[in-house]
Amino acid sequence: MATTARGMIENFLYLVEKFGHIPNGGRIYYERRSQPPLLTLMVESYLKHTNDTAFLRDKIHLLEAEYQFWQKQRAVNVTIAGKEYLLNRYNVQVGEPRPESYSADVELAEGLDEDAQQNLWAELQSAAESGWDFSSRWFLPGPPPLPATRQDTQTSMVVSVDLNAFLCRVEQVLASLYRTLGNTEKANQFQAAHEYRVAAVQAVLWNDKAGVWLDYNLVRQRHNEAFYPSNLTPLWAECITEPAAAERALRYLEESSALSYTNGIPTSLARTGEQWDLPNAWAPLQYVVIAGLAKSSSPWARDLAFTLAQNWVRTNLAVYEKYHAMFEKYDVEGDGNPGFGGEYEVQEGFGWTNGVIFQLLDFYGPTMRSSLHSSAIDNATNA
């Protein structure tokens, strides 16, 4: 599949060359709305498999171009204890209904004045840029139980943990890639950017009382204390200043009620009817938490990573046997069902669900067991 992977990466690189970023989809009306910045990490995975340094040398300027898009068009200054830090946010300044959900956006904005309508539509587009469309993460004055709905979406007012962890990892990888190519000046530049962001993430997003990183609300100038799996993204991204942070983040996870759901880690503990909230669980979020814990030197964290991985594989298998399909999201409640809620019916497929299952089976397969389906898991692993 290396040729296929390279082909997909080349398509994304073409979009960066043409638009300066990867649009939210391959349609004209997505031109001003990006995808999260994960292209550099895709290239890193491809290079680990192929060691194709000629490809890297030819294309690395486009990886840097995508990074610069986020630094120039999605950056925000945050002042903490009298010191200013530059971090990033999702922020699409397009005050129009989303073309793919035009009627729903127009209806949602009914009763608002023109300025408020345009602001709401821009915030909805910003939420779509994050991938979390929609969620209580973006509802201000939220999180629940404070009354908030999709009409209260203010995505651009949130300095999000996961976005800054992604960019922290991108900076580290770019430093490494430039070092591979012998470009010491660029390598040092991105290493310095990485070190700056690690310190900024710790200063702005770390909550010492909770013992974890939390989204920062620019309006209220405080953290959103609600649980989201994204709060643990810095573990996966290796965007931490000290090993003790991993132990504290693990304790945060165990003290939340998120681990009481054996079908997977819920996307939040808020029941809003939106698809990026309870009771839905999404494969990428499972993977980020599991992989982050698995990187820890703590046996306690690695044991929990295995348990979460086994739970997720069992959930996918149970739903597959019932519905004969894989799905984009799953219900953490009940006896194994696809997820639901949001703007559309749950989708079958599904790229990231299948990808995470392959990753987990590859990493944990030989030790995974299920009292009901041990032979099925063994067969999948062997295959």
Task: Walk me through the structure.
With about 375 residues, this protein is mainly alpha-helical. The radius of gyration is 21 Å and the shape is globular. It is built from 13 helices and twelve strands. The mean pLDDT is about 95. It is about 50% helix and about 10% strand. The strands form five sheets. It has a three-stranded antiparallel β-sheet with strand order 3-6-7. A three-stranded antiparallel β-sheet has the order 8-10-11. A two-stranded antiparallel sheet has the order 1-2. Helix 10 (about 285-295) packs parallel to helix 12.
Helix/strand layout:
Elements: H1 2-19, H2 39-50, H3 53-73, E1 75-80, E2 83-88, H4 102-108, H5 114-130, E3 158-159, H6 161-180, H7 184-205, E4 206-207, E5 212-213, E6 216-217, E7 222-223, H8 233-237, H9 244-255, E8 280-282, H10 283-294, H11 299-323, E9 326-327, E10 329-331, E11 337-338, E12 348-349, H12 351-364, H13 374-382
Antiparallel strand pairs: 1-2, 3-6, 4-5, 6-7, 8-10, 9-12, 10-11
